[in-house]
Amino acid sequence: MLPDDAASPPTGQEAHLRALEALYESAPVNGLFASALSLPEAGQSVIEFDVVPDMFHAAGAAHGTVYFKMLDDAAFYAANGLVSDRFLLTTAFNLHFTKPMKTGQARAEGRWVSGRRRVFVAEARIVDSTGEECARGTGTFLRSHIALSGLPGYRAAE
User: Fold this and answer.
1) Fewer beta carbons within 10 Å, N or C terminal of the chain?
2) Per-residue model confidence (pLDDT) at position 27
């Protein structure tokens, strides 16, 4: 019998969400960004990240690539939290800039909107350390032929 304070490994949906978090961490592109993904439940995601001067365009604020990357990832992981067998692919993404991001912490929040079979729609927004929205976007994601279980980074948390 396990002691009361011993946590058992996650199973089912919880294991899938933890494996997606590991997949995010394993992606080579994420070595370029100080960021961490958490999936509180299927259909929701949060990416905490740091905006640093290395990300700035010539006018001294975060380049659009940072906005797109964080919004796309937040929306993608919110949607893929509902799909435990296949990797989703972004087929379209609409982005709206609302405020320049400067140095500091920021948060991308994603949530699933619709779709459960082949095509999924999810939205995301970025808020800065003051809680002000800096951008928002909506993505369309398609179920691919790529099995999640075949991806080296997709593994249960240890």
Assistant:
1) N
2) 96
- 6: in domain: no
Range of the domain at 64: 12-150
Residues present in the chain in total: 158
Q: Which residues of the chain have pLDDT under 50?
A: 1
- What does the DSSP assignment read for 68-133? HHHHHHHHHHHHHTT-SSEEEEEEEEEEEE-S---SEEEEEEEEEEE-SSSEEEEEEEEEETTS-E
What's residue 1's pLDDT? Answer: 46
Q: Is residue 138 part of a domain?
A: yes
Within a domain: 155: no
> For the domain that residue 139 is a member of, what is the CATH number?
3.10.129.10
